[in-house]
Amino acid sequence: MTRGPLLNLLAGERGTAVFLLIVAFVGVIVPVMHLVPAEGSPLQLSGYTMTLIGKYMTYALLAVAVDLVWGYCGILSLGHAAFFALGGYAMGMYLMRQIGSRGVYGDPVLPDFMVFLNYKELPWFWHGFDMFWFALAMVALVPGLLALAFGWLAFRSRVTGVYLSIITQALTYALMLAFFRNDMGFGGNNGMTDFKDILGFAINTPSTRVALFVASAIALMLGYLACRYITLSRAGRVVQAIRDAESRTRFIGYRVESYKLWIFTFSAVLAGIAGALYVPQVGIINPSEFQPINSIEVVIWVAVGGRGMLYGAAAGAVLVNYAKTFFTAALPEFWLYALGLLFVVVTLFLPRGVVGLLDRFGRKTMPS
Amino acid sequence: MNAAQVVKQGWQKVFGAGTGSDRPIPGDASHGTILYVEDITVSFDGFRALNNLTLYIDVGELRCIIGPNGAGKTTMMDVITGKTRPDSGSAWFGVTTDLLTLTEPEIAEVGIGRKFQKPTVFEQHSVLQNLALAAAGNKSVWHTLFKPIAGAQLARIEEVLVTVGLKDQRNLRAGILSHGQKQWLEIGMLLMQDPRLLLVDEPVAGMTPQEVERTAELLLSLAGKHSVVVVEHDMAFVRSIARTVTVLHEGSVLAEGSMDAVQNDPKVIEVYLGEAQGHSDGK
User: Fold this and answer.
1) Residues of chain A contacting residue B155, judged by C-beta atoms under 8 Å apart
2) What is the CATH number of domain B29-282?
């Protein structure tokens, strides 16, 4: 109790220190291996690999956000990919406006898809996205406000458990249908792509890619630390109490709805930030990101890694996605079966996920 | 009224959470009665769980409430703690606080604590954390997120650990405590809220004889400082702690008085005690 708050965050759990060290190490070594060795040298890490790892990091941040609400507060959100996608769209809109007159149709203001769909002027909600700071604010605000409104309605009505999970699925499904429509003004089923610049730097140069990669690593570490701070705070204990015995927590005088609403909104903002880092690295955002299956996959990452342990969730995201990258290349038709099997095995035999398994193994071999 | 008083009042109006000496005290019991339950009726689908129930609890009193299953004991607790809204009647905490207008957390805040039938401690949290969670104080998200626990509360936790006899178990996970220890921890959690009125639902169900004895001592030590209402089936236990006993039957009060007086009441013998006596004799 006498330790400073920062030390408290880092100490007490070996996993946290190890996790932060690994992310920091990867955040430094990968860009170095990409930039320093000569082009074509066997030591060089390709831009593709670096961007792939960067993508995993944004997934890890999304998984940490989901673990915060599911693992710690017991809210099984099956709609978090929607917040991820909304953050991604906010970033995508900025990137579209950056294209300017370099688009196929050469319109100085309207993005290509609008010219193609005979838009005469920019829809009102596209204004402001030519400014980076405005787009960044929207990356946090749009998912945050949606989560706030949605959570306010759901938690106030005391919708919990499987019913809440179902309406979060409905939320992401409804958004998917909406974003598929051409007249929504978000590019319909093609979404947004062909990005050129970010902050005036060409998006495909090695240095910009490195910057995005490093930004992802930093966002992952900061997001992780923020979540860790929350789970260690008194508010975090309250949130875990809500998970274990909700009505009891209400009876000792906590406004359970406020806590749920707050943590759900915070988690949605984190998911939005992850999405905003994801889009410039993969170079595209389209409505398929809202698919209900995506949100379910995130929950599987968390379950595989270890629910209720933030670094477990991050590890799960990387492990499952690495497997996905591997299987979809090697045995594409096998992947969905593998994912399903993985979920069943983890649920039945590894309630605390891979990290829980390591933990148990570690304790058996090292008497301490 | 001088200028300083005016400023003080204005301050309190704006930042109401201050010392609050000019606000009506919640549960003002200056008339000697802490709880007024009057003519409460609750119906569930036509079944009258409570039927014009009237009950008064004095400050510092230890009251036992008994009655056969379905007499309305739990429903009565539900009404007092805001879980169930009555169809008619009134429930006041002291003379200033109308319980029927408050939500569950607000009722907990004004000073009514309830212990449920089943011990529901937070199993994943340590004994210490359980008590800290239950501590009185600002329970807003903002406050709990950024402020550490107050020193006064830490001192209070130590005090309560001694009172409920869990000093040596403070760092254990609550989930591994024995059944009796969980019940005491839960009573300790109630005490952390500094309640004026404690509602205790079947505290000794499933306890060993030693644990029952220890619980009786604990509840007796609490009376005086707090008003305590105990709902219990165990007649031997009730006899060991009760000063005043209220017998509920079909949603209203059948009899009230000392254990002996109640036991000899023919109406009571007919509906409940006779039957219970038979049981305890049979043991």
Assistant:
1) none
2) 3.40.50.300
